[in-house]
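can u do me a favor
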């Protein structure tokens, strides 16, 4: 986890960046991602040292500067400088490599380099397309001093963040999106289509978009070349790897199961071997995290196990409580679960992290997203609580089960078999659930109904939506656009390639940075996810049992309660009585959100008469409390999007 940043500029009179301001702004936000070297970049007066901490290149009308705030966990392989050089290539890289031995052998060098240094040497020898064979989480920038070509690249699944801003004369890049929004003299505006989709409740995330028209993130498994063409910057993107590009066929189901297990075990093992002790891991009581936790323990790694549920000593267990499964896992493996809850100390720790990075926080009492200038879509604060708990207890690496549902343990629907032309297995599956008599006519009717339902299904609409609050003219502009269907249950490749896995990855990258830890995502090891989406789909469903091959692959090490788990229920939360002051808190939150919705900026998109009418809800009933709160969450995303543009510069000024 390192913060990489910089810009590539064609000097002209129309738009020239102020070097001191741009680097200062980018440094402050990227300091959150790695602070090991930042003290050497600036002296006390704010003047930049002309040394290797910031690389500067000026030739003719080209102006380039790149920098890096390093994160290191082992002095043994720490880079000698955050600015890396191999012949004509200069680079900054954020990387954690898991197949170091393979890369070292390929480069014919000894094991005395950091992951970033090793990756640059590997690229210099083999080219950027060879990243397809690098098992790791990485993002980086390479500048060729001879050709003056700038290249941005990113890992297979987009675990590490890298955002960029592009115009005809400027390319700026940053691990933290706020580092770009804080730049002077760049055109950052909220993207209209993102705004429409967000308020309408459609899935607004793709693999590379952001809430801002001119800010993108580098597409996973890709690299982008920027070069000078007739006094303008031109870009060209190339994919170095494609998910599920070939089908895998074995002769028996047992072979499929064993291969899946081998890959997952290896993905966990190589990540454990790449870090010092102790590790830490989420323990949710679900299949995905449960298997990772069991494997960590059986590989003999010291680990801190954390659950987001309430401690049973504070809230009693009930039927179907996920903590019952957690208890079974802990009893079987002889491990301890630490129950991590959001608490009053969380804000204090978050405040400290931001201030230590040089972020000037407002004195005004605000909720977290506005006070700490968090990007739209930042949610699940339990991630941050877990990360902080891990850091305080000596761990800088948190294992998560994210990615399992997206394709590896996969909740297959029978329609997926039809969709993938596995007609024999489709009819067999439908016949198995047709009922006790299992007549052919009934089987055919169920099959036709199933196909019809999915063919007629519209796009997914989130409960966090408020389309009636859109300005009527603005809504008409986009309402005829075809929205994407939710392919989660029958086409995992399309779901992932449409950005389905991205929101959680953005969250763990940001919250991990704030806490000083790095999240490990074994199920998104490119070998694991590629294998899982490339094998026959019927393997994932057996009658009414979903995620079948995954269950079978690890049946011998699962507690019975975990193996038989149908759907994960956080039953402990259902026992909590509603807060007596929740209506007052809702009203306060609504006023805060409306206050941050700049009317001059948003009046052509949103209907402020309807928004202000929401304030007329005076202590809403239980029935519509959740509806109103969801509308406020939707509006908060809009307010946060513009707030980042307006405030990101202010937070690092002075």
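np, heres the sequence
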């Amino acid at each position: 986890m390192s913060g990489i940043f910089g810009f590539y500029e064609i000097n002209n009179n129309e738009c020239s960046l102020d070097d001191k301001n741009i680097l200062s702004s980018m440094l402050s936000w990227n300091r959150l991602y790695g602070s090991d070297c930042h003290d050497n970049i600036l002296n006390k007066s704010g003047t930049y040292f002309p040394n290797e901490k910031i690389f500067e290149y000026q030739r003719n009308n080209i102006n380039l500067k790149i920098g890096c705030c390093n994160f290191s966990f082992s002095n043994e392989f720490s880079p000698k400088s955050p600015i890396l050089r191999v012949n004509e290539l200069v680079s900054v890289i954020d990387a954690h490599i898991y197949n170091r031995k393979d890369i070292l052998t390929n480069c014919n060098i000894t094991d005395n380099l950091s992951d970033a240094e090793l990756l640059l040497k590997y690229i210099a020898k083999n080219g950027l397309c060879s990243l397809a064979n690098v098992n790791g989480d990485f993002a980086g920038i390479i500048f060729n001093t001879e050709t003056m070509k700038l290249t941005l690249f990113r890992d297979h699944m987009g675990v590490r963040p890298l955002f960029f801003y592009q115009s005809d004369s400027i390319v700026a890049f940053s691990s933290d999106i706020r580092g770009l929004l804080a730049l002077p003299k760049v055109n950052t505006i909220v993207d209209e289509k993102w705004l429409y989709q967000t308020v309408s409740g459609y899935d607004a995330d793709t693999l590379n978009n952001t809430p801002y028209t001119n800010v993108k993130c580098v597409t996973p498994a890709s690299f982008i070349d920027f070069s000078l063409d007739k006094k303008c910057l031109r870009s060209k993107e190339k994919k170095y790897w494609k998910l599920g590009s070939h089908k895998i066929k074995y002769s028996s189901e047992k072979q499929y199961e064993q291969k899946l297990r081998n890959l997952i075990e290896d993905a966990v093992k190589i990540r454990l071997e790449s870090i010092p002790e102790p590790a830490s891991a989420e323990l949710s009581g679900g299949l995905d995290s449960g298997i990772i936790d069991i494997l960590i323990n059986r590989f003999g790694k010291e680990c801190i196990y954390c659950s987001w549920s309430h401690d049973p000593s504070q809230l009693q267990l009930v039927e179907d409580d996920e903590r019952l499964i957690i208890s079974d896992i802990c009893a079987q493996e002889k491990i301890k679960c630490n129950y991590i809850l959001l608490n009053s100390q969380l804000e204090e720790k978050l405040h400290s992290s931001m201030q230590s990075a040089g972020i000037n926080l407002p004195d005004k009492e605000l909720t977290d997203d506005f006070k700490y200038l968090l990007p739209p879509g930042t949610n699940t604060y339990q991630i941050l609580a877990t990360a902080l708990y891990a850091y305080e207890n000596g761990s800088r690496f948190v294992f998560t089960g994210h990615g399992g549902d997206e394709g590896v343990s996969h909740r297959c629907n029978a329609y997926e078999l039809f969709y993938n032309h596995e007609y024999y297995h489709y009819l067999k599956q439908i016949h198995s659930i047709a009922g006790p008599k299992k007549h052919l006519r009934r089987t055919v009717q169920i099959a036709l109904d199933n196909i019809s339902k999915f063919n007629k299904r519209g796009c997914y609409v989130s409960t966090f939506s408020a389309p009636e609050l859109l300005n009527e003219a603005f809504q008409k502009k986009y309402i005829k656009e075809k929205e994407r269907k939710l392919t989660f249950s029958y086409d995992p490749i399309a779901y992932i390639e449409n950005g389905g896995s991205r929101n959680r990855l953005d969250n763990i990258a940001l919250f991990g940075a704030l806490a000083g830890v790095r999240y490990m995502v074994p199920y998104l090891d490119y070998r694991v996810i590629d294998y899982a989406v490339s094998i026959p789909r019927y393997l994932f469903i057996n009658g009414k049992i979903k995620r079948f091959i995954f269950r079978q692959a690890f049946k011998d090490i699962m507690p019975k309660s975990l193996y038989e788990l149908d759907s994960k229920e956080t039953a402990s939360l259902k026992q909590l009585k509603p807060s007596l002051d929740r209506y007052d808190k809702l009203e306060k939150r609504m006023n805060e959100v409306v206050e941050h919705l700049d009317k001059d900026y948003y009046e052509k998109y949103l209907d402020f008469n309807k928004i202000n009418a929401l304030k007329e809800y005076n202590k809403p009933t239980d029935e519509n409390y959740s509806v109103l709160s969801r509308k406020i969450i939707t509006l908060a995303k809009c307010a946060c999007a513009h707030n980042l543009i307006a405030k990101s510069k202010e937070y690092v000024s002075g």
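Residues 36-52 have pLDDT under 50 and may be disordered. hope that helps!!
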